[in-house]
Design a protein that fits this description.
By secondary structure, this protein is α+β, with helices and mostly antiparallel strands. It is 31% helix and 25% strand.
Length: 290
């Protein structure tokens, strides 16, 4: 096919798609033309593309501004997740109180029916709450023993160092969904766990806190460190990208980085996660269900 023939073919194609067709509407009785318009194949294609774009844009806008977005996989925002956790805790507290109330009523029924001695002490299982300010009266012998013991131990500084992490009432988010490839082992100085995850998956803060360090380490790649109010420090290593800077306030479950494969000690896309309490490493698996 010569160059001229190619040009003629292209010209015929453009003339064909730009050729306008007339659509007319007639009155059936008078055969009078009521309304008509002209439209080419190219114009029809452009109209369909614009209509599809407007439809997609309108659908996306409705999803963004309406609660429908919360039902999309991976779109559930942090506040909704925190509200779910709070509701679960409230439900657990209600179940606890109902169990205590039921056991109390059983005790009252036993006393009224005569099957239980009035002066007997019946423990309300482990559900009963104990007042922290209640003190059992001490006998003379016990008071002398306590006084002697306190006198002997007041110069023993070792008893002052309590480093037990406060886990009660603290909810830890999983930093990333993944499989554990290496566990916490202090013998080999592996003070965290390795979680295999999808590249560029979001790494989230395990607790509310403040970003106190961000930077690149030759061995551990991109590292971000959070300080939490209850004495915990969480460290996230081998990230592909850090989403927060030093001084930023973050909430539990908020994305702070993306999973990566940075640093010489990394053998594949994963997250190295460490949890420290008052300067000492702790095993993350004791606080988080991975």
């Amino acid at each position: 096919m010569t160059q001229k023939q190619k040009k003629n073919k292209a010209r015929r194609f453009w003339n064909q798609i730009r050729f306008k067709y007339k659509l007319s509407f007639f009155n059936e009785n008078t055969l009078e033309e009521v309304w008509s318009f002209r439209l080419s194949q190219l114009s029809a294609f452009i109209v369909l593309v614009v209509f599809a774009f407007l439809l997609i844009s309108l659908t996306a806008f409705i999803i963004v501004i309406s609660p429908i977005r919360n039902y999309l996989p991976g779109y559930l925002d942090v506040e909704v997740r925190k509200e779910i956790v709070r509701n679960a805790l409230r439900a657990d507290s209600l179940e606890r109180m109902i169990a205590i109330q039921s056991l109390y009523l059983d005790n009252v029924a036993g006393i009224l029916s005569g099957t239980m001695v009035l002066d007997s002490i019946r423990e309300i299982d482990s559900l009963a709450q104990v007042r922290s300010d209640f003190e059992i009266p001490r006998s003379v012998v016990e008071a002398d023993f306590v006084r002697t013991f306190e006198e002997e131990e007041k110069y023993n500084l070792g008893v002052l160092h309590t480093n037990t992490p406060p886990a009660d009432g603290v909810f830890f988010y999983k930093p990333v969904n993944g499989l554990i490839s290496a566990r916490y082992e202090t013998d080999i100085r592996h003070y965290g766990i390795d979680l295999i995850a999808t590249p560029n998956e979001s790494v989230v803060a395990t607790l509310d806190g403040t970003v106190v360090y961000t930077g690149f380490d030759p061995n551990y790649g991109n590292v971000i460190q959070l300080q939490h109010k209850n004495g915990f420090i969480s460290i996230y290593k081998h990230n592909e990208l850090l989403l927060r800077k030093v001084g930023d306030q973050v909430v539990a479950g908020e994305a702070i980085a993306l999973v990566g494969n940075t640093g010489e000690l990394s053998t594949g896309p994963h997250l190295h996660f460490e949890l420290w309490y008052r300067g000492a490493p702790v095993n993350p698996e004791e606080y988080i269900a991975f």
